[in-house]
Every structure is written in C-alpha cells, then in structure tokens.
C-alpha cells in the first residue's frame, strides 16, 4: 500500500503524456490520492490525449475511464482505435442495439463514419454486423456514402457500397446522388490519383446498380456534370454504361453533347469538325478523343435542336 507521502511525491512527476500510465499504476496499487490526481489531469486534457497515450491500458480499465469521461464512449473508443473496448461497449449495450450504434456525438459524427474515416475496417465490419445503419443521413440528407465521396475517401465509399448502401440516394435540396458527386471532381483541382479513385468509385456504383440517368435539382445528370467539370475519368466510366441516356436535357434545355460543344475550339480542318455553324468558346480542340467526339461515337444525336433558337 502506497503511503500518502509517497503518493504526494509521485504526483510531482505526473504530466499530460504520462498521466495514463501513472493512473494505471495507481489503480493497481489502490493509491486513491494519486489516482484521483491523475484522473483530474486526464479529465482536463481529455480531448488532447492521443491513441498512443492509451495503448498500454487494459480494455476494462480504459472502458471504465471512457464511460466516466464522455457521453459517447463508443465514439471515443473508435477515436483511440481500441477494438477491444468497442467489444466491451457492444456487450454492455446489447439490449439497446442497434439504436446506440446510430447516435451522433457532439460533433455530429456517427460511430461508423469515424471508423471508416480512420480506415478501421475490422471495427467498421463489427459495427455493420451489429446492424449499424449504412444509410444514416444528416439533416441535409447527406448519407455516409455522400460524405465519403465528398472527402475523396475511396476506402469508405467502397466499403459502404459493398455493404449495401443506397447507391441512388439523393441529397436534399441539390438532389445529388453519389454518381453526381464523383462526376463533380475536376482534374484542375485534384491529382490524377484522386481522379482515378473517383473513377473506381463510379465503376463500383454502376456495378451496384446506380442509375446514371438521375437528374439533380437543375436537371443535370452525372454525364452533364462530368463534362462541365472536365472529368474524363468518370465520363469514361459513364460511357461504358449501357443504360446511359445521352439525350436527357437539363433545365436549361442542354443535352450532354450540347454542353460538350461549348468547350470546343473549332478545328481548321473541316474533316474533323462536324459542327459548321455552332457558336463555340475556347476549350479543347475537336478531335476523336474530345468529349463531343466520344459522345457522337457513342450515338449522341447531332441533330438535337439549339436550346436557345430552337433550330437544328
């Protein structure tokens, strides 16, 4: 048994980085004064403590500590990447599952999203197997899949798609589906690696049954958006989809081909430029690899009327 004097002496050595270790020792030795002192430091620096600080602590003691310090112990257990503590939570809360798994913490985060954003596949799989809702949405109608795509998270997006997330869910207001969000990525703003990953997500979405013809609040399909964003990666994935409707118009009356034409610089070689009298602005030259040429090769109607004049 530690004497009070010894405890007071040791207390002078305690700081933020070692308070967890001293708390463990005090708990083992039943040194209550030292344990309470360490607990105060832990409490005042709770959000500053890193996963490494908790690595040596046993699951039972850590779970007990987490429960005493936060209203959302599951979220904290995931943040410190302790699957053993997650299991203790699931055992204790068994009668309240799956409801407790779908609670948001003070930051508005879901436990499953915390696990996915940290690439903790085993914890994420455990949560889903205990019926965490892969389609939970926030007040703006953004699902975990929408959020994963928005942050450019290939791991989270593919995990959710594989686990049955709704691939055609639309956000409130803008009415954007996951395919719309991947199409919005621009090569001007993102690296080739990120663009390639968006194409992989697009492919996974389409294979899982995503509808490439859904229109957002402005009537734009993912194909429309891939053209205006100059997203050749997702554009290529969409063109391979048999169900793709090339003639859908947005609310301004523009087809995908009409939008693509706006980006063409007329070629001096008449043989490669089928658009004799269409007004064009500076963009990419018209060649067999341009968005417009690819659409025509895929079967776009070149006789679609001009949306402004109604002429063909």
TrEMBL record:
So which domain of life are we looking at? Answer: Eukaryota
Check the record and name the CDD domains matching this protein: BACK_ANKFY1_Rank5
The record ties this protein, via InterPro entries, to: ANKFY1_BACK, Ankyrin_rpt, Ankyrin_rpt-contain_sf
ANK repeat ranges are 174-217
Task: Supply the alphabetized keyword list.
Answer: ANK repeat, Repeat
**PANTHER family the UniProt entry points to:** MOLTING PROTEIN MLT-4
Task: Supply the name of the protein.
Answer: Uncharacterized protein
Natural source organism = Marmota monax (Woodchuck)
């Amino acid at each position: 048994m530690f004497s009070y004097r010894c405890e007071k002496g040791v207390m002078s050595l305690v700081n933020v980085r070692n308070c967890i270790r001293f708390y463990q020792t005090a708990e083992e030795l039943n040194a209550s004064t030292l344990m309470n002192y360490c607990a105060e430091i832990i409490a005042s620096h709770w959000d500053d403590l890193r996963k490494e600080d908790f690595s040596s602590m046993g699951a039972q003691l850590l779970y007990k500590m987490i429960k005493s310090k936060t209203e959302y112990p599951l979220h904290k257990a995931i943040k410190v990447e302790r699957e053993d503590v997650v299991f203790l939570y699931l055992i204790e809360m068994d009668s309240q599952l799956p409801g407790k798994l779908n609670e948001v913490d003070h930051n508005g985060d879901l436990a499953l999203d915390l696990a996915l954003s940290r690439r903790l596949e085993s914890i994420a799989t455990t949560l889903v197997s205990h019926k965490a809702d892969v389609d939970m949405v926030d007040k703006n109608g953004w699902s975990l899949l929408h959020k994963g795509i928005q942050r450019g998270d290939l791991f989270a997006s593919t995990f959710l798609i594989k686990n049955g997330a709704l691939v055609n869910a639309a956000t409130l207001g803008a009415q954007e589906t996951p395919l719309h969000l991947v199409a919005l990525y621009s090569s001007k703003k993102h690296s080739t690696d990120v663009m390639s990953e968006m194409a992989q997500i697009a492919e996974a979405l389409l294979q899982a049954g995503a509808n490439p013809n859904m229109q957002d609040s402005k009537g734009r399909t993912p194909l429309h958006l891939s053209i205006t964003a100059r997203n050749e990666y997702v554009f290529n994935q969409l063109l391979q989809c048999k169900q793709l409707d090339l003639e859908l118009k947005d609310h301004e009356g523009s087809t995908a081909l009409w939008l693509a034409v706006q980006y063409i610089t007329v070629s001096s070689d008449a043989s490669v430029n089928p658009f004799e009298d269409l007004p064009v602005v500076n963009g990419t030259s018209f060649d067999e690899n341009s968005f417009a040429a690819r659409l025509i090769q895929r079967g776009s109607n070149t006789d679609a009327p001009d949306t402004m004049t109604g002429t063909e």
